[in-house]
Amino acid sequence: MKYNSIPEYFYKLYGRLYALILLPLVCFGLLYWEMKTGTIEPISQDIQLNQILLLAVIIVLLAEWTVSFFLFRNKVKSILTLGSLGDRLDRYYQFTLIRFSFLVSGLVLLAVGFFITRDQYFSILFLGSMVGLGVLWPTSAKVCDDLRLKGDERKLILYKLDKLS
Question: Where are the domains of the chain?
Answer without folding.
Answer: 6-158
